[in-house]
Task: structure prediction
Amino acid sequence: MKKIIFADFMEYDDPSNKLGNYHYAKLFSQNGYKVLWISCPWNILMYIKNKEVYLKRKDLSKPNIHELDENIYGFAPHSWKLYGDHLFCKNANIVLNFEKYITPNIKKSLSKIGFAKVDILWISNPKQYWLSNVVQYKKMIARLPDDYCKIGGFPESINIIEKELLNKSDEVFAISKNLIDKKSNIREDIKYLPNGVELDNFIRSKYNKPKLFNKNNFRCIYVGAIGHWFDAELIKYCSNKLKDIDFYLIGPINKDLSTLKNIKNVYILGKKDYKEIPNYIYYSDAALIPFEVNELTNSISPIKLYEYMSLGINVVSTDLKEVKYINSPAYVADSYEKFVNYIKQAIKNKDKDRQRNIRFSKENTWNKRFEKIKELI
Result:
């Protein structure tokens, strides 16, 4: 079998976040590849930030075969030095030469688990650039899932690392047209590869109604990470104007939502398992993408747009460039007032628009994206 290494931000087996590289890793594993999923370098400082991730990476750091899924394996290198937006950790040279700080010897570890030589080195996290120094690969691919310098948590030196990554890669994919435009000064041949949907997880013969959905009110749902880009004030405004509608927020929370916690028709549910999420969407009346509009969000390709629509549900989004660029059937609002009005329209047209939305999602699956990748590699 051929071999590929994925170097990402997330853990492969995170139960709630299944982002692009998870789906591509699965597809490569089903198409003749053994996959090694390499987590970010870690040390004891990770324990302070996230105990769960620390314990997972500690377990994966032993140079043994750690099977995560069929034909998919995991490894997490231990490093006595880390890179990030903290004192003494901001220098780009840490990432450009990370292998110097990793123990035990990373080349020996990769050799022991059979991934010192691979067909493809796939990097979506610029902090993993150093792998290109130690892995023997036939082709290196960079995938840009975000505008790193705007997402937060990175020092300014991430721009130096990103430039090195893009210039060194054989192919570069970006998830949005705006991201391609922004990086064209570094490289002019970046390929457009937006996000998609895993229909097998969302289209089912039967859905189980969540116990929380026990009221007769209309329901609006948001599924996804809740970070600094999430417009909590917009949700507050909508919940006040639409008191006969309940708003449900699902996803990991990394933002202060205290402004929403005493609102009777807003329910903050936190993380839910990826397999459970279709049940919540199916029994909702409209779905939301309530993001602030800025440099970061104008460069995203919202996975949730495709996931929502796979169940036929209408989507109301803020005025994001990519949502407009792909000419999606979403209701796109450029003001709080329009957002409220579009929620009303989305619910009213729920049945009429269902098949249109499903057709749109079927044209935007991860499988279709993978076919394009195969053509290019």
In short: The mean pLDDT is 96.
